[in-house]
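Researcher: We plan to redesign the surface later, but first we want a full-length starting point. Tokens attached.
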């Protein structure tokens, strides 16, 4: 299943914004609704009183880093075995594998109610700020703590039993295994989601998945969109449970609020005719056929309707979404035009001077620089001298891409007004061109190509008029 591009774009934007402020340490106060497990330790070890930049093939952090950590490595291990593995600032890691380790002892006699051996956490790692991870595999081992937010884009993610993230967790992944405690909310877009017995979310679960298996505790509400979802008998959802566009939903466990379920096929699990699932509030469900609900499962009212997919939306909702996107685009273009006309009126004259050959030249420049700038940024990032400059350049690069379509609209609008010598207000031209481009974006098959070309031309216009001068 493809990951939602908007979700990944939001993570990228937020990460780059934080990177531009890399000299600061942010520790998020999660304002938890419940108290999480605490196993504080007294650690004395070597101290590095500055930011750490790493670009080796393999690296182990065994000290206390009184600052931020920036890594671009093959394998990164944060290891507490020498009473270290402490990062007082933020962690930024790009690697094949990232492992935040711990030292754990297992009991041979004492077991939990699922038969798993009890564990004793001897040493663990801590990150006082936020963690931003891009990797093939990321593991947060038992007992390890992240006091801020966790942002992960990885093929495989494992958040182990006894580990804690005190803030929110944002995930884009192929496979997520959650057996940890989360002090905030979990926002996940994954292919496969497995929440095990010790998984605990103090706030809300926002999940989009292909398959989901949930056997943990959610202290507030769940908002799930999954093709196939199963909840197990140890599953507890403290407030409301919302499921949309599922093919199959197999339910056991307990929902203490209301349940709203939209699934083609719904199964309520029974054990020898005794229900092992319970809904304390109301149940509103839509499926292909009405199901038999044994007595004692739903305490409130039950409402049934025929299954309809909400993915495509109704005509009204599609029109509303189009208008909302159009209004948002117009506001952005108008604000950008006001800023340029007020602070850089000469630049406004430059970008309005366009022609067919000029647009083709802008297309070529845009294509070249949209590839060149990330390469330069990566080269700067892996060098200790220019790493901060590389991060700032990436931030500017993202901002210019976001503004490229609006710049093209402003260029065409000012060109049309000057060419036609019309008395109409410039804002009417901006409105007309924005509507035309947004309608083109609705055309199947060619919309993505046209949008890409618009971005390239707009990006090229920006670069061309910033860097190149007329001879």
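Model: Full-length starting sequence:
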């Amino acid at each position: 299943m493809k990951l939602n591009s908007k979700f990944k774009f939001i993570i990228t934007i937020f990460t780059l914004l934080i990177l531009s402020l890399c000299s600061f340490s942010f520790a998020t106060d999660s304002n938890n609704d419940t108290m999480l497990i605490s196993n504080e330790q007294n650690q004395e070890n070597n101290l590095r009183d500055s930011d750490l930049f790493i670009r080796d093939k393999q690296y182990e952090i065994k000290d206390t880093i009184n600052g931020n950590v920036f890594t671009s490595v093959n394998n990164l291990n944060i290891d507490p075995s020498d009473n270290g593995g402490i990062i007082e600032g933020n962690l930024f890691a790009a690697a094949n594998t990232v492992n935040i380790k711990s030292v754990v002892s297992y009991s041979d006699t004492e077991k939990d109610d699922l038969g798993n051996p009890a564990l004793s956490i001897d040493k663990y790692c801590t990150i006082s700020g936020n963690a931003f991870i891009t990797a093939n595999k990321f593991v947060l081992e038992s007992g390890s703590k992240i006091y801020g937010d966790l942002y992960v884009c990885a093929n495989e993610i494992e958040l182990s039993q006894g580990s804690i993230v005190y803030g929110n967790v944002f995930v884009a992944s192929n496979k997520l295994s959650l057996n940890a405690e989360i002090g905030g909310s979990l926002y996940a877009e994954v292919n496969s989601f497995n929440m095990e017995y010790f998984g605990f979310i103090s706030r809300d679960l926002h999940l989009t998945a292909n398959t989901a298996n949930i056997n943990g505790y959610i202290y507030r509400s769940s908002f799930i969109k999954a093709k196939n979802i199963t909840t197990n008998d140890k599953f507890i959802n403290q407030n409301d449970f919302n499921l949309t566009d599922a093919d199959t939903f197999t339910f056991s466990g307990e929902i203490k609020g209301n349940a709203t379920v939209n699934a083609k096929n719904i199964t309520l699990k029974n054990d020898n005719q005794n229900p092992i699932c319970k809904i304390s509030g109301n149940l509103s469900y839509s499926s292909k056929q009405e199901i038999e609900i044994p007595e004692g499962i739903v305490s409130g009212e039950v409402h049934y309707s025929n299954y309809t997919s909400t993915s495509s939306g109704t005509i009204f909702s599609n029109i509303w979404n189009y208008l909302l996107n159009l209004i948002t685009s117009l506001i952005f273009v108008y604000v950008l035009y006001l800023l340029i006309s007020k602070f850089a009126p000469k630049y406004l004259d430059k970008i309005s001077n366009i022609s067919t050959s000029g647009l083709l030249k802008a297309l070529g420049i845009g294509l070249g620089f949209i590839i060149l700038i990330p390469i330069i940024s990566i080269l700067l990032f892996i060098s200790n001298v220019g790493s901060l400059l590389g991060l700032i350049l990436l931030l500017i690069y993202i901002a210019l891409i976001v503004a490229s379509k609006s710049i093209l609209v402003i260029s065409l609008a000012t060109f049309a007004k000057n060419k036609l010598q019309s008395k109409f207000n410039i804002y009417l031209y901006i409105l007309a061109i924005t509507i035309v481009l947004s309608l083109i974006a609705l055309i199947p098959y060619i919309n993505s190509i046209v949008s890409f070309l618009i971005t390239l031309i707009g990006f090229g216009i920006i670069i061309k008029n910033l860097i190149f001068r007329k001879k």
